[in-house]
Amino acid sequence: MSENYRSREERRQVQKKKQPASKKTKPKGKTSFFRKFLISCLLLGIVGLVAGVATFFVMIKDAPKLEKAKLVNPLSSKIYDKDGNLVYEYGKEKRTNVTYDQIPKLVENAFLATEDSRFYEHSGVDFKGTARAVLVSLKGDYGSQGGSTITQQVIKNYFLSMEKTSKRKVQEIYLAYKLEQQYSKHEILEMYLNKINLGNRSYGIATAAQNYYGKELKDLTLPEVAMLAGLPKAPNNYDPTKKENVQRATERRNTVLNLMNRHGYITKAEMEEASKVPVDKNIKSAAELQAMPHTAFMDAVVKEVEKEIPDVNIGSDGLEIYTTLDPKAQDFADQLLNANIINYPNDKFQGAFTFMDTKTGEVRAIGSGRGENKAVFKGHNMAIELDRAAGSTMKPIFDYAPAIEYLKWATYHQIDDSPFKYSTGQEVRNADRSHLGPISMREALTKSRNIPAIKTAKEVGISKSKEFSEKLGITFNVAPTESTAIGTNEASPTEIAGAYAAFGNDGKYTKPHFVKKVVYPDGKSQSFGQKPKPVMADSTAYMITDMLRSVVTSGTGTSANVASLDVAGKTGTTNYSSKQLAQYGIPESATRDSWFAGYTPQYTMAVWTGYTKDGKDEYISSKNTKIAQLIFKEMMSKMATDKSRFKMPGSVIQEGSELRIKGEKRDSSPNTSVPDTTEQPKQDQQQKNEEEKNQEELKKQEELKKQEEQKKQDELKKQEELKKQEEQKKQDEQNKQNEQNNGNGQGTPNPPTNGGDQGTPNP
Questions:
Q1: Domain residues for 163?
Q2: Which residue, of 432, 433, 635, 715, has the greatest Cβ tally within 10 A?
Q3: What is the rounded distance in angstroms from the CA atom of residue 158 to the CA atom of residue 171?
Q4: Model-level pTM?
């Protein structure tokens, strides 16, 4: 047992000896800790990676799809004048797309050098380029290197919002890689250059070239390209049209030139030469860039297109709209209303008019308000939307033309201008409160008599007159009555002008229009041109024209006459009701609306003047009723170049100064001596004989006149000859007397002359 005990004791001693040794095994514990730490880090890394991947997939899960439809840019529509010259680009974003083949190498190089010099080397994201951009920025050369690739910018511009979050950045990187897999570099560059915002509502490089320089891309110079390439970073800060930006724009332009040189696109000499050019050279002014020219006309154009093509979006569908606009006529139209050509009584006095081609119906210019009432885009346009009583300008349309068309009246047809009442019992009055008794239709129209006009419309039939007027483009918001015959119906200058043009176009009505055609981006086009429609006989049109000539030569419209032109036209005025006169305290002679509508073989124009509101001081005085005529006269004098005259058609026969329809029974009336007969062949032969006789008489008179002139010339020559002979005789007698005096040593000798043998001797 002792043995065993000792053995146990020994074993214990051995164990005790071993225990201190076991406490000193620290290296084994350190190894275990680091192992655990590394394992923990690895696990954390794996977890982080998994979490990162999971987060990445979560972030890109709702990333927008690269739909091709989203790569289609909204395109502004271009509006051209009658000669095909660009007038304005309409749209929220002015944009013109170009293909890669249309992009000059100079333009491509400028943007690559500035925005993404490794564009053709990376696959959508350039980590190396981004790192370099950060380092360059840290050195203080801010903005000389871009942080995002062109591909990333395409993604931002087409698919993502402008918010700055890590999620959006992850989506940007992801989509940039996908875009590079689906499209070529050239396609991506094309997307970029067609989308970028270059300031002043210029989206895309082609639009910017036009807006800033009025040039095509191929015509841009190096300094111009460099200026444009510097804009994407901050368009508002580097816009050289603003004086306060010129210095910044110059520095930015020069940075682009430096980058182009650094990347080998231009030489140092080219860089230095381009840097010397003022950054605002050839730049359009800010006013030119921002202002919509011819606002009222542009408004009418857009409204017409939207009416004819309801499902079109002019601001984004990239249409080419070819209009009827004559810029020179429109400029003068604006001056007529807002310059000092016409002496307007005050700033509240308004005017509106439509100036159009008599034959085609194409509107060349419009006037729409003065001062604060000038037309605004998409606002009230008085030239096309005015609703004011047309007054006596309706008489040729509603009364006398239907009488000629349906009743076959001659211009000398007699109408009794005597006291008359409406069917309601209300008295009808002429403007001068007098009555002329039986007068011709010509005189009734020339002097704008109200009673004959109403009697004429009643004889035609109000419904027939309405039907006739509607064929001339006149609309009726309320059913016509007897008073419509003297112009109570409301109309716009464009409506009235269209109707009058039909008289000047041989009885053919062409609807007034502002647009010739619209061309869609795919090249298809839609015509807006209007075909002339026969709405009355040419005899009716000419007989009205001839009577309206009398209005401007001897009637109420003499202030509108232009001596060198064949002008036909009609005045129109409206008055206030008794209630309005009392309400506003204005004189009984006050006029509410004053019109003049007239035409030549070339142009037709309808003018309205008045006030937009009724008030104590807002009425037309008698001295200002002729302003409408003066506007017409100024416009025609300035723009009309065709001095030809309206030609009488074969369907009309002239009898002295009056006209009648050929083939119709001569108009019998109390005060005409024209014989009444139905023997038409005999009448025609008599008419022919009369015309031949008149021609012979004219020839005789011309011959006698020539003989008389020749006789006068001979007499003058004879008198001149006698005068010369008399003078010569006197001169001979004087010379003879002088010789006698010299020979006798008497009299005063002839004065000496220098250069002759005689004269003052040298001292």
A1: 97-290
A2: 635
A3: 13
A4: 0.70
